[in-house]
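Section 5.1 Outputs to date
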Amino acid sequence: MLLTSSLLTLPLVFRVEREEFRVRAGEDISMGETLKLRFPALRHDALRRLVVESSGLPVDVVRGAGASELPALEHLELWLGGSDDGADCAAADLEPILSGARLPRLRHLALRNSEIQDEVAVAVATAPVVARLKVLDLSMGTRGDDGAAALLGPRVSRWTSTRPTQSGTKKTTAPSCATFPWDHSATEAP
């Protein structure tokens, strides 16, 4: 991972033996220079947990994470943020992550704090990686009806509930929280 500006490149310590890496960053102006978080594609055989928190994650970071070979990664957390703070990714940029092809051990996926949470929810609802997740965290974003409808689809329907209404009809509701435990041994919603 590199923190760069036009005059300055600061490598962040990322040793081969490291199993966890967490960074909280975004664009910043320091001494008149713009500092921007960068994440080039990499291979790391031991990294188990990667967390990148930002109020505006650049698309290059999302694409770099998606293009990385991280065979031991179990926990991936990306705070996508909003365009006012520099976020410029689209749901399509998440496809390499959502395919799970380069992340065979991924069990916890958090795509948080996003102003495009509806699009993220739609992409996640049909993503191959979902079948092996224990936790899917889509919290802190601006999700609306489209995102909720996608999450009520067949792959996540076991976390919905049906309850009778006063008129005797049944009403299906989505969970109030967007963090879903994906316990494959359970037959009912937790």
